[in-house]
Amino acid sequence: MSLAGKTAVITGASSGIGYAIACHMASLKINLVLLGRNTSKLEEMRSVYQDRVCVDVFRTDFLEESQIQETAHQIIENIDTIDILVHSAGLYSRGEFTASSMSALDELYLVNLRAPFLLTKLLLPTIKKKEGQIIVINSSCGLKANAGISQYSAVKHGVKAMTDSLRGEVNKDGVRVLSLFLGRTATPMQAFVHKLEKKSYHPANFIQPEDVAEIVISSLNIPHRTEITDIIIRPTMKLS
Ligand SMILES: NC(=O)c1ccc[n+]([C@@H]2O[C@H](COP(=O)([O-])OP(=O)(O)OC[C@H]3O[C@@H](n4cnc5c(N)ncnc54)[C@H](OP(=O)(O)O)[C@@H]3O)[C@@H](O)[C@H]2O)c1
Q1: Residue 103 Cα, ligand 1 centroid: separation in angstroms?
Q2: Ligand 1 midpoint to CA 36 (Å)
Q3: Cβ pair 81, 129 in contact under 8 A
Q4: In the chain, which residues have pLDDT < 50?
Q5: Among 9, 119, 187, 215, which is best to mutate for testing ligand 1, by the most ligand atoms less than 8 A from CB?
Q6: Which of 45, 113, 143, 199 is the most exposed place for a label (fewest CB within 10 A)?
């Protein structure tokens, strides 16, 4: 199945996994609708890919509901078709329960759960028209909660619940919904995780964002009669 000419809305497109997915999609001639706050990065992507595909950029802060509403409105008005929606924007925090900041929990909830919920809700009628594909970048922490990451894990478990329930509702409209549960992936977020853990960071030991992008594209290439619902990806535990 050719993906050329399809249109993908990608959140968190300015960095890490979302960036790798956007670049891989552009190489396959998928038109890009890029969301993030780092507009200089998104504009740089536009200048690299605009000769090959249509690239639209929307600066959207997921902490602000009005900005999500406005972006969704603009996408519906100006883009017209959405074949693929990729949720990759996300924040991380860690810390023991007693030291946890409630404002950090509120931010995690807003960016990692509420924003993708609202954006999906607003774009769903347009996605249904194309019998599209929704892809949610989740975490191994969305399946199992270990000590020290109660807030991040709680929100990622919530994202799993949202995704599973959504799938149950929209499959009848021909919309497929895929969750990817990732282990440690070499992105700026993982560098930050290592800093919090006070560990030295060796990105080559981890999943590369390009590997995730390749898996996403493979799933999109599966005939529409078949749906992949969940993929668990982790770094190979090679003994050195
Ligand atoms: N890296 C890992 O080891 C790992 C493992 C499992 C799951 N994940 C998940 O993978 C997803 C992508 O993470 P990543 O590793 O690629 O991290 P990253 O490199 O830090 O990228 C995070 C992205 O989220 C966007 N973002 C953050 N706050 C935002 C806000 N307030 N409004 C709008 N966008 C915001 C950032 O865009 P701007 O800065 O432009 O706003 C950026 O593009 C996240 O959901 C993360 O939880 C990552």
Answers
A1: 18
A2: 9
A3: yes
A4: none
A5: 187
A6: 199
